[in-house]
Specification:
InterPro entries: ADF-H/Gelsolin-like_dom_sf, Gelsolin-like_dom, Villin/Gelsolin. This protein is of the alpha/beta class. The protein has a ten-stranded mixed sheet with strand order 2-1-4-5-6-17-16-15-13-14, with helices on one face. A ten-stranded mixed sheet has the order 19-18-21-22-23-34-33-32-30-31. A seven-stranded mixed sheet has the order 3-7-9-8-10-11-12, with helices on one face.
Length: 739
């Protein structure tokens, strides 16, 4: 069989360069679109969209081609209109395979259908997409050469989708959206009484685009219910298309809504292995989520079933050429077999060429060229080198990317006040007990620091593992009350035991101790037990720097020792500091400091214990003595979501290639930085969703397909009070954007 002939249409793709191109299928051949037509899609046509961008950088139609500094992230999308012919859709699919083959089989392939486009596809078009009626001559309808008045529906807060309606009639309109009536001389923007501000703005912008295309026109904004205020010719033209005496629009609550689909929890995600024995597709279920990267074997092909969120076909690098070429066809067969909607999003990816949105479905994805960490010391490369240096708060505010990377806003040397929850009230913690926590209690820490002449506030509320629900609820409520006293200027941060963020640890300067017991704890019904009142106990000391070292009480027995840490064994007579072979210098220093508060101290090195030490622990026992092995620590890029439960179903809509402008004032936004969840409350966001923001964050963690720890710190902040460890995830940050 001869070599595959290269389609001349692909000659427009530059070698080793970023690039964004769109072809339309015309007369069963690919024809390159003019740049001014990018973003316009006819329902009667099929298209091929090619995107080659630098890894980790946004892609889009406005980018100027240039050689990449690193590798190219290549995606091929074929888009199928609702009225396209079967032949045209087939050509788009075949040409996708041809282009993929020409590029060595590495690009990610996506099947897009009208009205159900992927977030990545929509992210290319910063001014939105326009869905137009008709198609080229080979399709079902012909595009009209002459001008005909049209009615458009404008939807979407970020990426606008403008849809040309079948005809101009009130019956197609509802009062929850914005509509644009284009008569060429005058462009009318009709705003439904329940439409949101963003859609109104997008409607006006779209009218401006039409005006530019016509070479000039009048634009008239009409509010629902105030149409009678129009005068003269403008009113006559409007009524010739939409007579006011026939006005009858659909109420927003009755209008068709986007399907409400709950985010899948990790247990609902499914992995299937594919085989094509004897020419018949066979799909075998391998497991349900959470999924691990190690579940994918390079010899095979797999389907990751994320239901209504889309189907992914992963092709191992040792899979056959036939498997690679027919992956999308097999996925279509899988969709039919499962009874999923035909417009379900489908993407095909190749081993070692996975996009970010695929990796996030796995709890432990690690790229092959990603640097490795060393057990718990992995944080050293991310935090310690910066934290060990004396911080200057103004430096971090001026370098938000560094603040985001280190998860710090300053060095923790600001002012702090600490309260302990007791009987639904806050009891101040004495100065000499700052840094002491009890597992059965909840605490509030108010931290203040200066940046120039401006004071900033952080309100941490810490929840012990054994604290009651009442205490946890009281801590959250009291944090809100304290924030109100500060006129809403504080950033509220939910912290759970064992998941303390670096800055929280730094506030206590490496002297944080967590004891068993507490006011309401079953360990201690008679009230709190302070260090001085406890005659015998054992503390495990862990940390990589003098800022993040912490001591936690464990059972006083030899079986709880661990070669990788230091332990303080306190008895009525003296204290022992047991230093494991893998312990760090900072752990040993903290252990000495804490033990010195209890009188005589004896340092014991692992392997050189005497009989009195084992006697204090109740005798010798086996304990964890294996050294911490070098382990792969996955890196997780930040992700931005607009979250809502207004419909009664939790929805998290991801914004691909996000920027500060995607933080819309009407919304509650969630920034997932993996080991911290940020909740951003827009000025005009729904008050009920503001109040339920923490619940939204917990629901997000619960439903993350990657399987997340419910104790991940949650930071709640208001628009206009963003700290540098938040703004650093957005690239360029403009403090005047919302003014």
């Amino acid at each position: 069989m001869g070599a595959l002939v290269r389609d001349p249409a692909f000659n427009s793709i530059p070698r080793n360069s970023t690039c964004f191109l769109i072809w339309r299928v015309e007369n069963l051949e690919l024809v390159l679109l003019k740049r001014e037509d990018y973003g316009k899609f006819h329902k009667g046509d099929s298209y091929l969209v090619f995107s080659a961008s630098e890894y980790g950088k946004p892609a889009g139609m406005l980018d100027t081609p240039h050689p990449p500094r690193g590798g190219l992230d290549i995606h091929i999308h074929f888009w199928i209109g609702s009225e396209t012919s079967t032949d045209e859709a087939g050509v788009a699919a075949i040409k996708t395979v041809e282009l993929d083959d020409m590029l060595g089989g590495g690009p990610v392939q996506h099947r897009e259908t009208e009205g159900n486009e992927s977030k990545r596809f929509l992210s290319y078009f910063k001014n939105g997409i326009r869905l137009l009626s008709g198609g080229v001559a080979s399709g079902l309808k012909k595009t009209t050469d002459g001008f005909e008045p049209s009615l458009y529906q404008v939807k979407g807060k970020r990426t606008t989708v403008v849809t040309e309606l079948p005809s101009i009639s009130w019956s197609f309109m509802n009062d929850g959206d914005v509509y644009v009536l284009d008569t060429k001389e005058t462009i009318y923007v009709w705003t439904g009484r329940c439409s949101n501000n963003i859609e109104k703005l997008q409607g006006a912008k779209f009218a401006g685009t039409l005006k530019q295309e016509h070479g000039g026109a009048n634009i008239l904004i009409i509010e629902d219910g105030r149409e009678s205020l129009m005068m003269g010719k403008e009113r006559n033209v409007f009524e010739s298309h939409l007579p006011l005496n026939n006005k009858m629009v659909i109420p927003a609550h009755e209008a068709p809504k986007d399907e409400n689909v709950a985010r899948r929890i990790s247990g609902e995600l499914k992995l299937y292995r594919c085989s094509d024995e004897g020419g018949t597709l066979k799909v075998v279920e391998v497991k349900t989520g959470p999924l691990s990267q190690s579940d994918l074997k390079s010899n095979d092909s797999y389907i990751v079933d994320n239901g209504s969120q889309g189907i992914w076909v992963w092709v191992g690098k040792k899979a056959s050429k036939k498997e690679r070429e027919e992956a999308l066809r097999n996925a279509q067969g899988f969709i039919s077999k499962k009874g999923y909607p035909l417009n379900t999003q489908v993407s095909r990816i190749i081993d070692n060429g996975e996009p970010a949105e695929f990796k996030t479905l796995f709890k432990d994805w690690k790229d092959k060229d990603q640097s490795k960490g060393f057990g718990r010391q992995y944080s050293t490369s991310k935090i310690a080198h910066t934290v060990q240096t004396k911080f200057d708060a103004s430096t971090l505010h001026g370098a938000p990317q560094l603040a985001a990377k280190t998860k710090m806003v300053d060095d923790g040397s600001g002012q702090k006040e600490v309260w302990r929850v007791k009987d639904f009230e806050l009891i101040p913690v004495p100065e000499d007990q700052l840094g002491q926590f009890f597992m059965g209690d909840c605490y509030i820490v108010l931290y203040a620091y200066l940046e120039g002449n401006k004071e900033h506030y952080l309100l941490y509320y810490w929840i012990g593992n054994d604290a009651s629900q009442d205490e946890a609820g009281t801590a959250a409520l009291k944090a809100v009350e304290l924030d109100d006293k500060l006129h809403g200027r504080a950033i509220q941060i939910r912290v759970t035991q064992e998941k303390e963020p670096p800055h929280f640890m730094a506030v206590f300067g490496g002297k944080m101790v967590v004891f068993k017991g507490g006011y309401a704890s079953a360990f201690d019904g008679e009230g709190a037990r302070d260090m001085g009142k406890k005659s015998s106990y054992m503390l495990q000391v862990r940390g990589t720097t003098n800022h993040n070292t912490k001591a936690t009480e464990v059972d006083m027995r030899a079986g709880c020792l661990n070669s990788n840490d230091c332990f303080i064994v306190v008895t009525p007579q003296l204290s022992y500091i047991w230093c494991g072979k893998g312990s760090t210098g900072d752990e040993r220093e903290m252990a000495k400091t804490l033990a010195s508060q209890n009188g005589e101290t004896i340092i014991v090195s692992e392997g050189h214990e005497k009989a009195d030490f084992w006697k204090a622990l109740g005798g010798k026992e086996a304990y964890a003595s294996s050294p911490k092995l070098q382990e792969d620590t996955p890196m997780h890029p930040p992700r931005l979501f607009q979250c809502s439960n207004a419909s009664g179903v939790f929805k998290a809509e991801e914004i691909i290639n996000f920027a500060q402008a995607d933080l819309v004032e009407d919304d509650v936004m969630l920034l997932d930085a993996w080991d911290t969840i940020f909740l951003w409350l827009g000025h005009n966001s729904n008050k009920k969703e503001q109040m339920a923001a923490e619940t939204l964050a917990l629901e997000y963690l619960r439903t993350d397909p990657a399987g997340r720890h419910k104790g991940t710190p949650i930071v709640k902040l208001k628009q206009g009070f963003e700290p540098p460890n938040f703004t650093g995830h957005f690239g360029v940050w403009d403090n005047d954007l919302w003014n």
